[in-house]
């Protein structure tokens, strides 16, 4: 009964490089959320996806950030040309589906991105 | 608009003291869901409780209890006889059932330090 799997756990990138963060939802879950947590701050919503569709990306920065959740494989959060301000913990969460908003989100352990 | 406020940034208590973490929310929906999560120093996010807006019954689980009051839009969390292992950041979150948004909105968290 695997939970939400995120990898890598830690990621170090130099300014200007690309960061790719992966998330496999819990078995049976078809909806994925990405949140960002800056040091000493709360969780900020970024994007909500279901298979092959972006449902809500209102929290995503307009440039350099993108997310996908293909039919096969994990959800990917991609950050292009990273800057120091992108350093944060990125959490992925999954839920069973759109009609179950009373379901708690199940979180992965997060990816800690450090930009040097 | 959705909003969750955790006014207490940090609380320190001595072991065995009781402590209450405050959560105040804003929503226009009549049906919504409230959650508490714990983030220990190891960084993962642990689901603690879910409450529906139409169920104001308080809940107790061991040393944990939750007081939901719609009249004051509050969903407070009390730890009785605190222990060092309770030291963590605690997040309150809100999900609306009928609005067009799909976000789970989190408060900024309260850092609880339990001193031995």
Describe the structure.
The complex is a heterodimer of chains A (116) and B (116). Chain A is mainly beta and 116 residues long. Chain A is 0% helix and 48% strand. Chain A has no helices and eleven strands. In chain A, strands 2, 4, 5, 6, 9, 10 and 11 form a seven-stranded mixed beta sheet that branches. In chain A, strands 1-3-8-7 form a four-stranded antiparallel beta sheet, with no helix packed on it. Chain A is globular. By secondary structure, chain B is mainly β. Helix content of chain B is 0%, strand content 53%. Chain B is built from no helices and twelve strands. Chain B has strands at 3-5, 10-14, 19-21, 24-26, 32-39, 46-52, 59-61, 64-69, 74-79, 88-96, 104-106, 110-115. In chain B, strands 2, 5, 6, 10, 11 and 12 form a six-stranded mixed beta sheet that branches. Chain B has a four-stranded antiparallel beta sheet with strand order 3-9-8-7, with no helix packed on it. Chain B has a two-stranded antiparallel sheet with strand order 1-4. Chain B is globular and about 45 Å long. The relative contact order of chain B is 0.35. The mean pLDDT of chain B is 91. The interface between A and B is medium-sized, with 27 and 24 residues.
């Amino acid at each position: 009964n695997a939970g939400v799997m995120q990898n890598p756990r830690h990621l170090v990138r130099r300014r200007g490089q690309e960061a790719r963060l992966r998330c496999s939802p819990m078995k049976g879950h078809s909806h994925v959320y990405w949140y960002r947590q800056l040091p000493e701050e709360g969780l900020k919503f970024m994007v909500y996806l279901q298979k092959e569709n972006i449902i809500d990306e209102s929290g995503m920065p307009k440039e350099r950030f993108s997310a996908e959740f293909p039919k096969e494989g994990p959800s990917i959060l991609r950050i292009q040309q990273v800057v120091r301000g992108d350093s944060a913990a990125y959490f992925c969460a999954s839920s069973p589906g759109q009609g179950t908003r009373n379901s708690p989100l199940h979180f992965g352990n997060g990816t800690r991105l450090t930009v040097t | 608009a959705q909003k969750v406020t955790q006014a207490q940034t940090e609380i320190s208590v001595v072991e065995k003291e009781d402590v209450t973490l405050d959560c105040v929310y804003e929503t226009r929906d009549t049906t919504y869901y409230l959650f508490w999560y714990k983030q220990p120093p190891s960084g993962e996010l642990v689901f603690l409780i879910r409450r529906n807006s139409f169920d104001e019954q308080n809940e107790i689980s061991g040393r944990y209890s939750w007081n939901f009051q719609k009249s004051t839009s509050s969903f407070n969390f009390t730890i009785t006889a605190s222990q060092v292992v309770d030291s963590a950041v605690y997040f309150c979150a809100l999900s609306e059932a009928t609005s067009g948004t799909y976000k789970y909105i989190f408060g900024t968290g309260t850092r609880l330090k339990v001193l031995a």
